Amino acid sequence: MERIPILKLGDALLVTIQVDMHDRLVTNLQEDLTEKIVAHNARGVLIDISALEIVDSFIGRMLDNIAAVSRILDARTVVVGMRPAVAITLVELGLTLAGVQTALNVERGMELIRRDSEQLLIADDAPAV
Amino acid sequence: MEQADTLAIRTSDDVVRVRQEVRARAIQIGLSLVDQTKLVTAASELARNTLDHAGGGQVFMQPVLEAGRRGLRLTFEDSGPGIPDIQLALKDGYTTGTGLGLGLSGSRRLCNEFSIESTVGVGTKITIARWK
Description:
The complex is a heterodimer.
Chain A: E1 6-9, E2 12-16, H1 23-40, E3 44-48, H2 57-72, E4 76-80, H3 84-93, E5 101-103, H4 106-125
Parallel strand pairs in A: 2-3, 3-4, 4-5
Antiparallel strand pairs in A: 1-2
Chain B: E1 5-9, H1 12-28, H2 33-54, E2 57-66, E3 69-78, H3 86-89, H4 103-109, E4 113-119, E5 123-131
Antiparallel strand pairs in B: 1-2, 2-3, 3-5, 4-5
Helix pairs in contact in B: 1-2, 2-4
């Protein structure tokens, strides 16, 4: 069965989308990701879309769904590497990706996820009031 | 004028092919990268609509030259159930399926020209164009 590879990167999982996604591939990815979030105790999911020439509402919905499910599993989703022309088009299309965080590249996305985990650690250390 | 071509839309893979073919023609007529992206995105939305709502159909791709301007015109045709209320279907967020309801309204915003003809029980024809 066709699948998109998911790599472990520190506390996070990295998915690089390089092909035109069709329905079956999307379903597989969502299932694989949720399993790996739990298996690796992941704090975040980075989705690299720098290879995508367009993002339509089908892909937009996939990103939103992944973010929603990850959030319930206590992981943050960051979409990285969106091309400028894609960003312009998305806004005009009316797709705001409200539930998804974005970063310019993988490093910046990792930073967001790391900062999140550190804040959690600080909160855990704080004395109970 | 360049040759027009028709592509069938029957499977999810055909939607991918429509995107590739529209991109190639948009590059050929010299659309900017942003305009290419807008047109290909609109084509992807409409091709998926054709598949999801009508079970398939076809797209006709025609490079055009009008008043000295070059452009690409795409016509999506299906023999599906048709759209009973076009005004409603063009509203952001309105959907009869499981999508986001941005296919029609969004692709209208992404193009310079947009028209719909639809007859319930007969089918739907949507024409879009993007000019250089």
